[in-house]
């Protein structure tokens, strides 16, 4: 019996509820490191592994690299800075410089985050044109020697007992397997880890908790950005609250980014609540609900907000942005107390900056504040406790919901990606267990590539030579 992809299922039996099949999947390649997911964290993880000498394959479901930054149109990197201390250096900073050189950004800027909310804060962000980031990411991966498979969906891990030994992938060419001694799960949903049987944090499972809402970002052209920026904050908040009261806005936000030139608005104004991103029916409804919201928001902006009178819809993101789905339970669980208490870890491999950012799962508000300083993230948060050959990076690392609110920003995800790539290369090339990689060796590799992983180092470097893209 053909499965439609060239694989066969011998002796298959079909019942009303179950199809049993035995598949014969060809092995299409062997690598030292495979990274599943080409978003902010996965892209940097693949580059880091390749820079460390590992033959690396990067598998991405979308047609471009960059993840939330490109496919979901979240057109700013947050988390490079905590106040004036730069926490994230190394490969992520290199990427920002490439984006500036390509004309996709004017560099780091001061920005009032969630200006129309009850608790806005000033941050330093890195706004960019998502379309430019797409080709910058392509070039960076190619120059580093990373092999990339786009439009390729991860079916699951290749397993031998409790060890991951590769990935099964489906794409336009069919179903095939790629083998490697180390796989990095950068899917954002811990998709590989879940199918490998890794234990997950229980706070979001089985209805015991509420996930933060999704957002569908859209882009408007022909916007008078300067006119809008000149509106006093109190007036912006009044407009947002009135829009919420009338059911035309979905949270207390008039937040948007502009690309170089300043005539467009990439808007993060939707809020899609109560839908599970891990359920295919609900995930599909989230996309439709997002587009319904966007249509109404655009009408509201044109009618009520100075600067948007002549705005034209120029694009809607290819996919909804998801803030929470799964998080693994790793060798260590990062907590909000660790972040606010400035806990130092001997095996720290990345720095987070904040802000602490929790969107109200059932309402229109947001909890938003900056930690007092950058915070350390230990290597153990990337390592499953009970599965070999697998590392996890990005927003699925081992953290509580509150800690995840401060550690899921894209700059932090990229710092974690650099750590994951270094860990993967060391494990694959040195035949080390992924559950006992020497932290000192990882830190040495990170230093070689310019990363900062201790708070004191970030403070010293920021005082000596503040980085600008």
Task: Give an account of the 3D structure.
The protein is globular and about 60 Å long. The protein is of the alpha+beta class and 469 residues long. The chain folds into two domains: 29-86 and 97-105 and 124-209 and 325-358 and 366-464, FAD/NAD(P)-binding domain (3-Layer(bba) Sandwich); 218-316, no CATH class. The protein has helices at residues 40-51, 90-101, 130-144, 191-195, 225-229, 233-245, 280-304, 336-340, 401-407, 410-430, 439-448, 455-464; strands at residues 13-14, 19-20, 27-30, 33-36, 56-59, 76-77, 81-82, 85-86, 109-113, 121-127, 147-149, 153-160, 163-171, 174-179, 182-185, 218-221, 256-257, 265-267, 312-316, 348-352, 356-359, 366-369, 375-378, 390-392. The strands form eight sheets. A five-stranded parallel sheet has the order 11-5-4-15-24. The chain has a four-stranded mixed sheet with strand order 3-14-13-12. Strands 17-18-16-19 form a four-stranded antiparallel sheet, with helices on one face. It is 30% helix and 21% strand. It is built from twelve helices and 24 strands. Helix 1 runs parallel beside helix 3 and helix 10 crosses helix 11.
């Amino acid at each position: 019996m053909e499965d439609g992809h060239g694989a066969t299922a011998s002796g298959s039996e079909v019942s009303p509820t179950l199809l049993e099949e035995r598949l014969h999947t060809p092995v299409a390649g062997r690598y030292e490191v495979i990274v599943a997911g080409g978003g902010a964290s996965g892209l940097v993880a693949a580059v880091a592994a390749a820079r460390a000498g590992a033959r690396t394959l990067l598998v991405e479901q979308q047609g471009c690299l960059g993840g939330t930054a490109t496919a979901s149109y979240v057109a700013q990197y947050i988390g490079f800075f905590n106040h004036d201390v730069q926490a994230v250096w190394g490969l992520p900073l290199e990427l920002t410089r490439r984006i500036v050189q390509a004309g996709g950004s004017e560099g780091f800027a001061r920005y009032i985050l969630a200006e129309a909310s009850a608790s806005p804060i000033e941050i330093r962000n890195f706004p960019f044109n998502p379309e430019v980031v797409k080709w910058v990411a392509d070039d960076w991966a190619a120059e580093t020697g990373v092999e990339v498979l786009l439009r390729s969906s991860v079916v699951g891990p290749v397993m031998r007992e409790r060890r991951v030994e590769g990935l099964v992938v489906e794409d336009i060419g069919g179903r095939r397997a790629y083998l490697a001694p180390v796989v990095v799960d950068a899917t954002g949903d811990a998709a590989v880890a879940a199918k490998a049987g890794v234990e997950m944090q229980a706070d979001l499972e089985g209805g015991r908790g509420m996930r933060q809402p999704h957002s569908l970002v859209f882009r408007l052209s022909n916007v008078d950005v300067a006119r809008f920026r000149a509106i006093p904050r109190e007036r912006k908040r009044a407009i947002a609250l009135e829009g919420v009261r009338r059911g035309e806005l979905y949270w207390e936000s008039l937040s948007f980014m502009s690309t170089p030139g300043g005539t467009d608005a990439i808007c993060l104004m939707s809020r899609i609540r109560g839908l599970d991103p891990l359920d295919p029916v609900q995930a599909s409804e989230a996309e439709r609900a997002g587009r319904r919201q966007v249509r109404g928001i655009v009408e509201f902006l044109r009618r009520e907000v100075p600067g948007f009178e002549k705005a034209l819809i120029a694009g809607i993101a290819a996919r909804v942005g998801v803030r929470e789905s799964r998080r693994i339970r790793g060798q260590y669980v990062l907590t909000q107390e660790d972040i606010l208490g400035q806990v130092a870890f001997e095996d720290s491999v990345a720095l987070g900056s904040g802000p602490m950012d929790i969107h109200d799962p059932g309402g229109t508000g947001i909890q938003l504040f900056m930690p007092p300083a950058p915070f350390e993230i230990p290597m153990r948060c990337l390592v499953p406790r009970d599965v070999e050959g697998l590392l996890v990076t990005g927003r699925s690392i081992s953290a509580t919901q509150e800690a995840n609110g401060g550690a899921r920003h894209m700059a932090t995800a990229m710092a974690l990606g650099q750590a994951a790539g270094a860990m993967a290369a060391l494990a694959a090339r040195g035949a080390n267990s992924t559950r006992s990689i020497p932290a000192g060796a990882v830190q040495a590799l990170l230093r070689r590539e310019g990363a900062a992983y201790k708070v004191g180092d970030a403070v010293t470097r920021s005082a000596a030579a503040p980085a600008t893209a």
